[in-house]
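FW: tagging you since you asked about this chain on Friday. Here's the raw sequence from the shared folder, copied in full. Didn't touch anything.
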Amino acid sequence: MKKITKAVFPVAGLGSRFLPATKVIPKEMLPIVDKPLLQYAVEEAAAAGIDTLIFITGRTKNSIIDHFDKAYELETELATRGKDTLLQQLRDSIPAGISCVYIRQPEALGLGHAVYCARPVIGDEPFAVILPDDLIADGHRGCMKQMVDLYQQKHCSILGVESVDPSETDKYGIVRTQNFFGQYGAVEHIVEKPKPEVAPSNLAVVGRYILTPAIFAKLENTGRGAGGEIQLTDAIADLLADETVLAYQFAGKRYDCGTKLGFLMATVEYGLLHEELQENFTGYLKNLAANRL
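HL: got it, structure written out here
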């Protein structure tokens, strides 16, 4: 049995919801307090034992490559000034023993196409897919670690899911499952962004996947679906005919940082937990609330 050692990060999107900020800054590099959104996803992967990070990038995403590269001049300057804490934080942006691979997606053809671009590096191994837009806070094992642990038991594809408001099913891939055994159940049906009146449930796939390499053959034959894009959801629907796919209700709180509201919520709540800011930021918010009531 092969372990999950590789993770794909599809980061070639335009980030149009955050324009004009994302005209020159990738949305994945927007900070939640003092770390880029993508950094949290990388740390989650590393905590799950993943040692090869595959970034599917676009033409304007060079700052992602720079962020995970060694900055000799900056490190030298920090060392000279005795700023050891900042120096260590900088060096920890990519954990020890981690390798980074960058693949350019020539045009934005959807999540399914982005995942397919990783095929030469993945080969015949199972792998993870992490969408940085979905920031999942869990102070214990981490969402991907939970899913990797389940994979070691079940040896099949796994989709991270959570219940959403029934009126919002047209924003997600939606699954129907058999009865759950604790936190997981077998997927019977999956559809991309169904309207609420025809959705098979309100159980939504969020940005965490573990997939077997069989998904690549399905993606190769997947035409354009919702939004005119090659949808990973459609390929998973085809995979159901051949393999078991599990839906896993993870422990943790998800922030949809692909939206402005979700991004602000994450910023506030992570700020309240930040060791350096916690006390003063809590006081500020209390005073703000008192003065506005």
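FW: The chain has two domains: 6-258, 259-293.
HL: agreed, and The chain has a mean pLDDT of 90.
FW: great, closing this out.
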